[in-house]
Every structure is written in C-alpha cells, then in structure tokens.
Amino acid sequence: MAVLSAQQQSAAEYSLERVSPVDGRVVSRETAYDRDHCLGLTAQAAAAFPQWSGLRATERAAFLVTAARELETRRDDFLASMADEIGAPAEWALQNLHFAAEILRETATYAQEVEQVEPLPERRGLDSRAVRMPCGVCLCISPWNAPLVLGARAIAMPLLCGNTVLLKGSEFAPRTFRMFGEVLEAAGLPEGVARVILTRAEDSEEVVEALIASPVVRRVNFTGSTRVGRRVAELSAKHLKRSLLELGGQSAMLVLGDADIDLAAAAALEGAYTNQGQVCMSTERLIVADDLADALIVRIEEGRRKLKFGDPREAATQVGPVISIDAAERLTGLISDALSKGAELVGGGKARDAFLEPTLLDRVEPDMRVYREEVFGPILAVTRVANDLEAITVANDSEYGLACAVFSANEERAGIVAEQLHSGICHINRCTIDDTPHAPFGGVKSSGYGRFGGRWAIHEFTELRWLTRARKPGV
C-alpha cells in the first residue's frame, strides 16, 4: 500500500490546501500528517523491509514496470493536477509524466547489476568477494517543480536495491503527490514498502528532523533548494546517515565567437523559459562573445516574442505563471535591481499576480543580484565577454555547479572550454536542460553531492560488504 486508507487515518490529521498560481482558487485539499504519524509510517516501512529486501531484484523490478504503466493510465488526471497546482503548461506536464514512467522502466533494467557479486583476488585457503546489500528505510524528499520525474527518481533505485521508502511530497503539489502514491498502490507494492507522505509547511522541518533521526532510516535523498539542502546535510551528518543532495543551479550557457547563432538562440529559449525557468538545469546566465552578442540577442528576442504566455490550462500556452505571487515579486525585484545598476531590458519584465513575462536582460554584471542568485524563473541574463578565458572565468564565478553548455563550431575548442567548467553536467552545442535515467545526474559546489541515475545510483542506496569463506582443506 502506498497511501493510507480511511481506517488507517489517525487523529493527527490536518487539511492541506493548495491555492493555484493561475487564478488564486483553492484547487486541492489533501490530508497532511504530523511528526508522530509520520514516525509511525516509518516503523511500518521498517517492518516491511525484511520481506521486500528478501525478494530477487528482478521481482522488485517488475513492480517498477507495473508502476510505470499505471502512471501512464492516469495521464489526464496528472496533467490537470499539475496545471492547477503548479501552473505547468501541458507540454511540460506531459514530458514529466512520460519521463517519470521512463525512469521507472529503465531503472528496472539494472536488476542484475544490483545483485552483482565481485570476486576479490584469491588468498590461500580463502574465498573473498564484495557484495552490495540493501540499507533499510530510505527517506526521499521531492520538490514541486517536476513532481512526477523527481518523485519517481527519488524512489526508483532505492526500491530496486531492496530498500523501503518514504516519499515526502511538496505542499505546493499535494494532489499530484497523493495521486502518485495511488499509482504505487495500484502497482501492487506490498504493505509499507512505499509511502507518500504530506505535511503542512509549518510542520515540515520538525517532521524531517524526526525522520532523519529515526534509527531505522538509513539513507536520505533530497532534491530542492540549497538552503534546505544544507539543513538536511547537517541533520544527516549529525546522525551519521548518508545523504544524496541535488540542490540549486544557476546554469550557464557559453556562446563562443564561432558558434551557430540559430542553434544557440533555440537552445537559450528552451533552457531559459521551459516551465517558466523553474527547472534546476534552467539556463539562467548567457555568457556570450562580445562580437556575437548583438546578433544573438536579436535572434533570442525574436523567439521570445513568439512564446505563448498565459493560462497553462490552454493547450497552446508555452509559459505560464511561476509558483506563487511571492515568487513573482522576488523575480521582479531581481529585474529592478539589475536595471538600477545598468542592465538593459531587451524584452518582457512585466508582472501580474504570479505571471511574469519571459524576460531578457542584457549587460548583466557581477554587482547585480541576478548575476549571483539562483533565479528559478523566466529571466535570461546576458553577460558579454571578450574571449574564451573570460567566458570560463565568468561561468565559474558562481556558488552553483549543476549544468552548463558550450556552443562552438569547433568541437575541440568547445571541449577544451568544457573541461575547465565547474559543473556536474556539461553539454556541447545542446541545451542545459537534459536528463536520462542512465546518466550520473548531480552537481558540485552548492549544487550538492551524490548522483542519481544509472549504475552510480546503486552505490548511493546500498551498503558495500566484504564477505569471506574459508575453503575446506584440500579444495
């Protein structure tokens, strides 16, 4: 079971309401739980661990494949929920659903690798090997901006490795996460193996502290802001729990002097304005060779003006509202600060309620907040540079290091630049936004540590053990 039945609900319940950024209506009313109730669910997850971890990895993989199928059957429900709760345009919501299903299916293909035994060099009379074992209960904390992808990614490999999971969903997308829990339930996961929990914002810190402190929780993964990630890291370290942190980003796209302008403009538009710039890999900083900048900015502005901006519930909409009115006000503050210090507004910049026009700023310099802070909104900031070395210096002048991209007609030149960038992910002549279940996904510096994806995630969610066996005399 993945969600609580009415008979299981305790008195420690609260109503969790979500007001839509689209029109200010209450669009979700879900049940949230307090610390003690969540600790009770942790105990149930611990009780389910022996049976679940005792299954073959191929058996556990079958549940993931079934969950992917169940997820896709509820396509329309999820698209409507994500439009209502987080203002997701239909194209982004649909990508979310399909990629979440892909994560579940492709993670299942690593079943044999999970159970792989590595023989160690022989010693006289001794067999020796290294094996990976499940850890126990894994606490998974996922944000609102890509709820299906980030929810699926948080639990898929932990489950395949034989752990049981508690997935704490965001209060900004409570209906979406509740329905994701129903998908897991429909997939037939045994009782207690995978729980989706929701809490009120004011209870979240207390609940997370208690869950990390619980002796049965052995792994923590968190996707979200660097500010909260630091707190999760502190708590995990205090209790000697390994954590995987995928945190903030401030992705830079470097356009060198010989780059294809059309290719770069298309990538900048996609990277900056997909999901209103609310993607951890969003292109926030466009670092451009000065002799190419004017022509590139003209091309980007032409594309920006063509973007369909408005109600995400309309099929043609490409850019909707940001997550809240508070977020929009913070973003307009970044724009005002930049303009007051000499930046130029090429286009956009107007806000109404939670709607902020896709915005293009030119001549952004290091003393401006938009240069330093994670934007997480539809603002593309252009900084002009004289040469490749300055481009590298500006790109690395950030506390974040998740994704970046380099554009050049000369692949060798682009590769030399890419090697010097401080990021966990780098693309050449491609948008900063990309993901696959088979790649090591994660960042450096204040963008976190650890890796989701592929065989690297197996290492995050298992314990490595050394096993020896004495041979019988004469063998």
Tags for this entry?
Aldehyde Dehydrogenase, Chain A, domain 1; six-stranded mixed sheet; globular; disordered N terminus; 16 helices; 475 residues
Structure report:
By secondary structure, the chain is of the alpha/beta class. It folds into two domains: 264 residues, Aldehyde Dehydrogenase, Chain A, domain 1, CATH 3.40.605; 178 residues, 3-Layer(aba) Sandwich (Aldehyde Dehydrogenase, Chain A, domain 2). 42% of the residues lie in helices and 23% in strands. The chain has a seven-stranded mixed beta sheet, with helices on both faces. It has a six-stranded mixed beta sheet with strand order 7-6-5-8-9-21, with helices on both faces. Helix 1 crosses helix 8 and helix 2 runs antiparallel to helix 4.
Q: How would you summarize the topology of this molecule?
A:
Layout: E1 13-19, E2 26-33, H1 35-54, H2 57-73, H3 75-86, H4 90-108, H5 111-114, E3 118-119, E4 126-134, E5 137-141, H6 147-160, E6 164-168, H7 174-186, E7 194-197, H8 201-213, E8 217-223, H9 226-238, E9 242-246, E10 251-255, H10 261-273, E11 283-289, H11 290-306, H12 325-340, E12 344-347, E13 351-352, E14 355-356, E15 359-362, H13 369-372, E16 379-385, H14 388-396, E17 400-401, E18 403-407, H15 411-419, E19 425-428, E20 444-445, E21 448-449, H16 454-460, E22 462-470
Parallel strand pairs: 5-6, 5-8, 6-7, 8-9, 10-11, 10-18, 11-16, 15-16, 18-19
Antiparallel strand pairs: 1-2, 3-4, 4-22, 9-21, 12-15, 13-14, 17-20
Helix pairs in contact: 1-8, 2-4, 2-7, 3-4, 3-7, 4-6, 10-11
